[in-house]
Amino acid sequence: MAILRFHALKTSINNNITPVVKQGKRSEVFGTNVFNRRTMLQYLTRDAFKSVISAIEEGKKINRTVADQVASSMKDWALSKGVTHYTHWFQPLTGATAEKHDAFFEILENGDAIEKFGGSQLVQQEPDASSFPSGGIRNTFEARGYTAWDPTSPAFIYETTLCIPTIFVAYTGEALDYKTPLLRALNALDAAATDVCKYFDKNVKKVTTSMGWEQEYFLVDKNLAACRPDILLTGRTLLGHSPAKGQQLDDHYFGSIPTRALNFMRDLEHQCMLLGIPAKTRHNEVAPNQFEIAPIHEEANLAVDHNSLLMDVMSRVALKHNFEVLLHEKPFANINGSGKHNNWSMSTNTGTNVLKPGKTPMSNLQFLTFFVNTIKAVYENEELLRASIASASNDHRLGANEAPPAIISIFIGEQLTKVLQDLEGVTKGKLSPKEKTDLKLNVVGKIPDVLLDNTDRNRTSPFAFTGNKFEFRAVGSMANCGKPLTILNTIVAKQLKAFKEEVDALVDGKSFKKDEAIFNVLREYIKSSKDILFEGNGYGQSWELEAKKRGLSNNKTTPEALKVNLHKSTIKLFEQMGVMSKVEVEARYDVEMEAYINYIQIESRVIGDIARNHIVPTAVKYQNILIDNVKGLKVIFDKDYKSLAKEQLNLIKAISAHIDGINSNVTKMIGARDVAHQIEDVTARAEAYSNNVKPFFEEIRTHCDGLELLVDDELWPLTKYRELLFIR
Ligand code: ADP
Ligand code: MG
User: pLDDT tens digits for 468-483?
Assistant: First the structure.
C-alpha cells in the first residue's frame, strides 16, 4: 500500500489540468437538453401544449391521447439529439436518485426494428422496487411499487438517456420516495397561503414555494482518494492526523480558485446549463479544498430535482478531472464540514414574494403575517424540523462543535427584532385610530428601510432571515432537500391555516376590522414564540444552557432526533395536512433508523479493518526496524548501547502502547457491534450503535493518528491529510 501511496502522489502531481471544452454564451446553452416550454412549443400541438401547461400550473390531469402525443414528441426530440434510451428518474428513500434505462428500440412482428415510446411508458412504469427501502410498506401490503410522471418537472437528456422525473409509490398509494410528500406539502402550503394572501390581494390564486440551495463540497485527487479505503467506502476519512496547516490562516475562503478546481467548475456549470440547472455562483469555502456552487432560486420541486441531479453530475464531471467529489458533511476532522443552505420563500401568481417587504403598508402587513407565522411554525415544530435534517453524517456537524448547533433557533437581525417588539406592544382588542396610523407609518411602513440595513448575518444560526427569504442552514450537504422542505412547508401550511381561522373568528365574532384582527393575532404569536429567536453565538455552551431553559430541544444524535416523528402530534399533523399517512410516517422512521444503523455499521467495519490490516502491520514493520537498530547498537557499543538507543526504546514502547490501544478497542467495538446487531427493535438497535459502537471510533482513531506521527513516512500506507487537502 505504501507503494500505492507514492505512486498516487506522483500521479497527482502530474495530474495536470484537464482542458475545458469551448462553452459559448451560457444564456444560449441554457436548457438545451431540457424538454422545456420552448421545446414543447416547437414539438407539441397547441392543445397538447396547453394541456401540459395546465397540468404544471393548476395540477390538471393529462388524458391518454395527450400523453401519447407528448411521449411521441419527446421521443422525436430526444432522437434528434442522439438519445437511445429513456428512464423514469426518481428519488427513493436511499437519498440518491434512481434510474432504469430502456431502449426506444423495438422489433415489430414483421421483424422490422423501430424506435417507440408511447403515453403508457411516459405516464407509468413498474421498476422492480423490491430492493429499495420501503420501511416494510411493501411487505405489509404485498404491493409492488410504480413510478408515475411528474409533469411539473420537465424531462431532460442526461448521458444520452431521456430522463422523466417521476414519483415513486406503492400500488396501495403510499409514497416510497421524497418527491411525493414534497408535492403534497407544496400543495398544502399553496392552499393555506393563498387563503391568507386573499386578505391582502383578492387576485391571488396560487402561492408557489421558491428554493435556492447552496451546495458545499470537497474535491480531492482521485488517485490520492484511491489510497483511502475509508473515503472510498464511507465518503469520509475515519482517521488521519491534522496537517500543520489547516484553515487557521483563513486563506481559502473566497480566495482565488485553484486552476484545477476552476476547470472542474466550468465543466460542471456547462453541464448544469445544458440540463437547465441555473448555476450562478461559485467560490472557495472556508476549509482547504472546499467549494460551493449555488443556482438562481426556482420553484421548490424543480429546485430539489435539480439539486439531486447536480449531486450526480458533480461526481461524473469530477472523475473526468481526476477528482473525487466528497459530498459528506464531515470528510475531514478538525476543519469545517459541508452543508447545503436551503433558501426558502413563497411567492404569489401575481408576482409578489410574500417574505419581501413591499412599498405599501398593506404589502408590509402581508410580509409581517408570513414572517411571524413562519417563526411561530418553527417554534412549535422545532424538534420536527431538527429531525428532518438528521442523518449519521450530519450528526458530525450538528451539535458537534460545528456550525450550526443541533438546537433550532431563528436569527432575524436587530432591526426586525425591534419591529416585533413594537408589535408586541399593540393594544389587545380594538385599536385607537391614532395607534392604527402610528402602526402603519412608524412600524409597518418603516420595514423596507429597516431591511436595507439587514446585512448583519449570523453564521452560527441554523435558520436565519436574510432580507427576502429564510435560510435553513442546518441541512446536510448530502441530504435530499425534499425532506426538510416537506417539513417546513407542512408546518407553515398548518400554521397559516390556524392563523386564518383565528383572524376570521375575530372579524366575524367580534366585528374587528381585518387589519385590527391581524395585528391582534400576530401580537399573541410574537409573545408565545419569542423563545425561538436567538441572535447570539450558537456555538457556545451558554446557548445550550439558555436553550434548555427555554425548553428547546437539543438532540445531538440521529436516533434521538428521529423519535419525534412517531409522536402522536406529528402523525396527526401529517394526516391533517394530507402530507403523509401514519403508515408512511412510520415506514420512513424505520427506513431512516435502518440507514443510520447501516452507516455506523459500515464505518465501524472499515475503521476496524484499516486499523488492524493497514495501521498495525505498518507500525510493527517500523517497530522491527527500530528493534534491529537497537540490536545493532548493542552489538557495536555493548553496554553503552542503552543511552544511545534511549529514544528508539521509547519509540518501541510507544508503538506497542498504540498497537495495544488499537487492538483492544477494535475487539471491544466488535463485541459491542455483535450485541447491537442482535437487538430486534430498530430504535434500541440504533441507540446501541450510537451509544455503544460509535464511541470506539474516536479511541481507535487517536491511536492510529498517534502512530501516523511516529512511523516512518515512507512506510505509511494511507495518503495523509496534508497530501489530500491542498490541490493547486
Ligand atoms: P448567501 O450570502 O447566503 O450566499 P446569496 O445572496 O448568494 O446568499 O443567495 C443564496 C441563495 O438564495 C441563492 O441560491 C439564491 O437563488 C437564493 N434566493 C434568493 N432569493 C430567493 C427567494 N426569494 N427564494 C428562495 N431562494 C432565494
Ligand atoms: Mg446562504
Answer: 999 999 999 999 999 9
Sequence-ordered list of residues with C-beta below 8 angstroms from that of 504, at least 6 positions apart, any chain? 517
Task: Tell me if 308 sits within 8 A of 230, measured CB to CB.
Answer: no
Q: Which residue has the cell 402530507?
A: 579
Quick one: pLDDT at residue 403? Answer: 64
The pTM score is 0.95
Residue 243 has pLDDT above 90, yes or no: no
For residue 230, give every residue at least 6 positions away whose Cβ sits within 8 Å of its Cβ, in sequence order, or none: 236, 237, 238, 239, 606, 607, 610
- Taking phi first (over 0 means left), then psi (-120 to 50 degrees means alpha), and beta for anything else, what does residue 158 get? beta
Nearest residue to 331 via CA among 401, 238, 406, 246? 238
How far from each other are the two terminal CA atoms of the chain, in whole angstroms? 25
Instruction: Determine the Cα–Cα distance for residues 424 and 414; give it in Å rounded to an integer.
Output: 15
* Mean pLDDT along residues 411-415: 89
**Nearest ligand atom owner, CA of 463:** 2
Q: Sign of the CA dihedral 198, 203, 208, 210? A: negative
List the beta bridge partners of residue 162.
86, 157
User: 10 vs 361, which has greater pLDDT?
Assistant: 10
Q: What is the mean pLDDT of residues 664-691?
A: 98
Ligand 1 pocket test, candidate residues 272, 280, 343, 488, most atoms within 8 A of CB? 343
Residue with CA nearest ligand 1 atom 1 = 214
Q: Is the pLDDT of residue 454 over 60?
A: no
- CB under 8 Å to 67, separation ≥6 — which residues? 119, 120, 122, 123, 149
- Which helix (H) or strand (E) segment holds residue 281: the answer is strand 279-284
Q: At what angle do helices 361-380 and 514-529 cross, to 10 degrees?
A: 30
Contact yes or no for 223/322 (Cβ under 8 A): yes
Dist. CA 349 → ligand 1 center (Å): 20
Which ligand has the minimum distance to the alpha carbon of residue 213?
1
Using CA atoms, how far apart are residues 575 and 583, in angstroms rounded to an integer?
A: 10
Helix, strand and coil in the chain, % to nearest 5: 55, 15, 30
